[in-house]
């Protein structure tokens, strides 16, 4: 899930398109936003569609987790690389390549006849999404003069936020409509006309730049980061089904060693004057390190809430996908509404983020109490108070997260820091889905008592993660200064 997409490393753009008509710039912005919204919608659709896809494609309970985790893991490995490729080959070229590949990968998922093919298609979606999304920031910088840049980002943020939180609702609606007897497949088929329109308009409207072919791509660093991420998530998802064999724990230990190896490699490469994916100087900043931990915790809780509610409602209580999607609408509406007030709360700095963590934890606790009290009689309207409170909390802490962390970063580190934060957020989402999904299925055996026990443990763990995020949030700077870096 790329809700907090950070700006990619940006080369200076001397040829801002100030000579273009005003309407042209906003039409070009719409094209960029359409491509980004397509990716954001698909990042979260399987949180609702997962049970239906598993019933049709076969596979174990872990398939529901993998349909989302595979996507976000591919994004983790690809974001840093995609941003760097934009520097080398040009932003427009990489945006169009990403959009074309994402559209094709969506078709692969839509026609898949087995679980392996669907997961493979999701991996391709994540990789091509990672090529497309990092180009958005630089393209907007190239299309708008400084006086209009912040206005452009002011419109872009809500669009991307609505796309991210609206994905599950769209998925439930499309499955319920069952257009042309397509079932869940229409969720991905709808990307075909959108992707084609984006490509046609992007070719005509987006500004071209050749990039810097002298820059180099750190393939070893990218490989180490990707392998470390997979080594952490894979055993969390598959270990339970396999009975937690020795290899599952060995992979988790190996992931920690690989992350350490990635850090050592970046330090050595930087000292030798080579091009790195992450500037080592960032890790000498306590606030930035705290921000990385916080990003994992926040995104783990965010992804976990959606997954656990889907499992409880669809797998446990037998809700249809559309009914489950309707149930989660209060969360999305509250989050979207609260985002409209974030600019007014910027002066409170990290206090807004800390308050958001507590409000979200309180909302999840109310959802848990509601689930316990209602039991088998739970209906969608019972969950409105808790979900709305959780939605407001999510907007407060996620909306202020990026700006708060970036206060500790110097101007020459912004590109590297933003790409790192994006990758860590995707890793956090994968970690939350893997961990909380595993906890749920470890308890649930098909009856109401085990369902309540599974949801109790999983949502209780989510509250604990949010409280841990509240504690880590004190490592961030107290005040958030206005900068040219937007928060999506």
Number of strands: 0
**Total discrete domains:** 3
Taken as a percent bin, the fraction of beta residues is under 5%
Instruction: Give the uncertain stretches in residue-range form.
Output: 1-19, 482-488
| CATH topology assignment of the largest domain | Growth Hormone, Chain: A
Give the N-to-C terminal Cα separation: 12 Å
CATH architectural grouping of the largest domain: Up-down Bundle
The CATH superfamily title of the largest domain: MFS general substrate transporter like domains
Query: Gyration radius, to the nearest Å?
Result: 21 Å
Main sheet characteristics = none
What is the topology?
Layout (H helix, E strand, L loop, with lengths): L21 H23 L1 H12 L4 H28 L1 H21 L3 H18 L2 H9 L2 H32 L8 H4 L1 H15 L13 H20 L7 H26 L14 H31 L4 H7 L1 H11 L2 H4 L4 H25 L9 H23 L7 H30 L4 H25 L16
Helix pairs in contact: 1-5, 1-6, 1-7, 1-9, 2-3, 2-7, 2-13, 3-4, 3-5, 3-10, 3-18, 4-5, 4-6, 4-9, 7-13, 7-14, 10-11, 10-18, 12-17, 12-18, 12-19, 14-17, 16-17, 16-19, 18-19
Provide structural commentary.
The protein is mostly helical and 488 residues long. The chain folds into three domains: 1-211, Growth Hormone, Chain: A, CATH 1.20.1250.20; 218-274; 279-488, MFS general substrate transporter like domains (Growth Hormone, Chain: A), CATH 1.20.1250. It contains 19 helices and no strands. The chain has helices at 22-44, 46-57, 62-89, 91-111, 115-132, 135-143, 146-177, 186-189, 191-205, 219-238, 246-271, 286-316, 321-327, 329-339, 342-345, 350-374, 384-406, 414-443, 448-472. Helix 1 (22-44) packs antiparallel against helix 6. The radius of gyration is 21 Å and the shape is globular. The relative contact order is 0.15.
